[in-house]
Amino acid sequence: MCEDCGCTLGGEISHGHSHHDHRLAPVRANPQLNEAKTVEVIQKILHKNDHEAAHNRQHFEQAGVLAINLMSSPGSGKTSLLEALAE
Predict the structure, then answer these.
(1) For the chain, where are the alpha helices, taking DSSP H only?
(2) If residue 64 lies in a helix (H) or strand (E), which one and from where to where?
(3) How far apart are CA 8 and CA 76, in angstroms?
(4) What is the per-residue pLDDT across 17-45, written as a single tens digit (0 to 9) for each?
(5) 3-state secondary structure of 24
(6) In the 8-state DSSP scheme, what is residue 28?
(7) C-alpha angle with apex 5: 10 to 44, nearest 5 degrees?
(8) Spatial separation of the C-alpha atoms in residues 1 and 79, rounded to whole Å
(9) Bridge-partner residues for 24, per DSSP?
(10) How is the chain split among helix, strand and coil, in percent rounded to 5?
């Protein structure tokens, strides 16, 4: 199977490989789709989220606003906690 795109799962290369390296692993009769694979991560997956959060924190700090991120499972009491704190 092609290590980059898995194009040989059906036994034959289904497209040209000019867009990635031609390193082909041996094609097995019944490849498993859930086999472990290594993926190189070039940047943090949540990089954009971290950037936006830092931007929001800066605005909250400048405005003197205390912002709290409250996360938990549905039904765990987040709203009840906020209502009790509001009183």
Answers:
(1) 47-63, 78-86
(2) none
(3) 47
(4) 555 555 555 555 555 667 777 777 777 77
(5) strand
(6) P
(7) 150
(8) 50
(9) 2
(10) 30, 0, 70
- 């041996």: which residue's tokens? 26
Q: Could you read off the pLDDT of 53-68 as tens digits, one per residue?
A: 999 999 999 999 998 8
* Identity of residue 37: K
Output the pTM of the full model. 0.40
Please give the structure tokens belonging to residue 35.
């086999």
Q: Which two tokens stand for residue 16?
A: 């040209």
Q: Which of 3, 2, 15, 1 is nearest to 40 (CA)?
A: 3
- Phi/psi zone of residue 75: left (φ > 0), alpha (ψ -120 to 50 degrees), beta? left
- The residues, any chain, with a CB within 8 Å of residue 27's CB and separated by 6 or more, are 1, 8, 11
What one-letter code names the amino acid at 73? Answer: S
- Alpha carbon distance 1, 25 (integer Å): 5
